[in-house]
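Re: that chain you flagged

S.,

Sorry for the slow reply, it's been a week of failed gels. I finally had a moment to sit down with the sequence you sent. For the record, here it is as I used it:
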Amino acid sequence: MENWKFALSSIRSHKMRSFLTMLGIIIGVAAVVLIMGLGNGMRQSVTDSVTGDKDIVQVYYEAKGEELDPAYADLAKPTKPVKEVWLEQVVRQTPGVDSYFVTNNLTTSISLQKKTVKNVNITGASQGYFKAKKLEMLTGRSLQDNDYKTFSRVVVIDQLVAKKLFETTDDALNQVITIGNNDYRVVGVYKNKDTAIGAYGEIGTALVANTQLAAENNTDAIGQIFFHVTDVQNSSAIAKEAAKQLTQLSQDDNGQYKAADMSATLNQVNTIFGTITTVVGAIAGISLLVGGIGVMNIMLVSVTERTREIGLRKALGATRRKILTQFLIESMVLTILGGLIGLGFAALVVGPIGSAMDLKASVSIGVAIGSIAFSAAVGIIFGLLPANKASKLDPIEALRYD
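Prediction finished late last night. Pasting the structure tokens below so you have them in one place:
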């Protein structure tokens, strides 16, 4: 306890010097913790984008002799075109599946008078899409039964497209926009949580009837197949059974339907982000080493300044171990205080920065504990040399020191 008192007293008596000594540790810890928090947020965002809604599973066609990446599943065309009666039968025959929907896609520009949004993902969606996806409508409505029956040229756009074409989302309602070469009336704006990044920045999405998109662009009405499952815990097994049922119904000898398994893609994503976070974190960690060197330098100065004090303590019976412990504690307290301040700063700013980047970034308990433990280790390692020097001082020579 006496050593703690001496250490804290020394820090309090040199407040500015102590703060400047801690500054390198503060910056280092804040940088590492912030990078780890944002890195984890980015990884989670990409993971959510890859996996999508956990209660929705995709089934795709794979020709014999091919090993198709599920991410490019829409590139494979079955020999026998999919019929919706097959999908309806799969829903009836597969336990755990209560509905399905299909989509097709087109990438083109959307324009309104002189404004143009390039590379918009036009998704043609069947009626089951809106119920399964549970879209959050910001204004207006989604597509309805009558829109499909009458082949109405109506569209639902996401908030990104609305922002680029209109001043507010409400201004978009009932406006006529041009998709490709055709005019569509905007009936709703929804919040898209799955925006992607492309050459022109974030890629917006517009939803139209899949049958309308197919008729106007001479494409298949069914490009991708999705099933909505009621048991999320067993979604993988349910998806495989649905794919098996669809293969049997299609009677296609040239290929089969498979359930999209994104585990390989997720592993690759986690590996990439893990490497990036580690490398950038290591670079930021260099500032911790610089901070540690600063601590060692100041502690060596402190030992020189307090030579007579050390000699007096030794003359009064203080052992070498007590002197060593005193300076190690002082060094460790400096780095732990710096680590706590850096951690607190990172915890305060990681949320707002993450929100600005549309990420759910936060400081995990493991990272917090690790940063403090690392700060303490830096204090011990870089405080060892000054503490050892102080403990070896000869009391008589120390008392003579001027």
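What I noticed first: The chain has a mean pLDDT of 80.

Talk soon,
D.
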